[in-house]
Design brief:
By secondary structure, the protein is mostly helical. The protein is built from seven helices and no strands.
């Protein structure tokens, strides 16, 4: 296992990843989107090809770009719009009518 990969396995918080890759961030963005950013980062990593052919410097640069891209997604958008988690992906497919809400709120007498 490379030194870079070993160091990455020791990181867990979004702040740790951003600081490791020397990327500036706004705490307010992380407060809302930290898990979404990390999930998107992992999605981008899975889409990439050729990591095994890169040296550590090039791998660091590529991962840094992917993390910056993932973070940027949530600077420009919201978790609800980006839908990286299944629960948010399913939310749009389940609509609730106003009438069904009224029926559930009526108390039996």
């Amino acid at each position: 296992m490379s030194t870079l990969v070993q160091r990455l396995t020791q990181l867990s918080a979004a702040e740790e990843f951003l600081e490791f890759f020397c990327l500036p961030y706004e705490q307010s963005v992380l407060n809302v989107s930290r898990l979404h950013i990390l999930k998107r980062f992992y999605q981008y990593m899975r889409q990439e090809q050729g990591f095994d052919t890169l040296d550590e410097v090039e791998m660091f640069k590529r991962l840094r770009l992917l993390l910056a891209r993932a973070y940027g997604d949530f600077v420009r958008s919201t978790p609800a719009r980006e839908k990286v988690f299944k629960v948010l992906q399913n939310a749009d497919s389940q609509s609730v009518s106003l009438e069904s809400l009224r029926r559930t709120m009526r108390a039996p007498r």
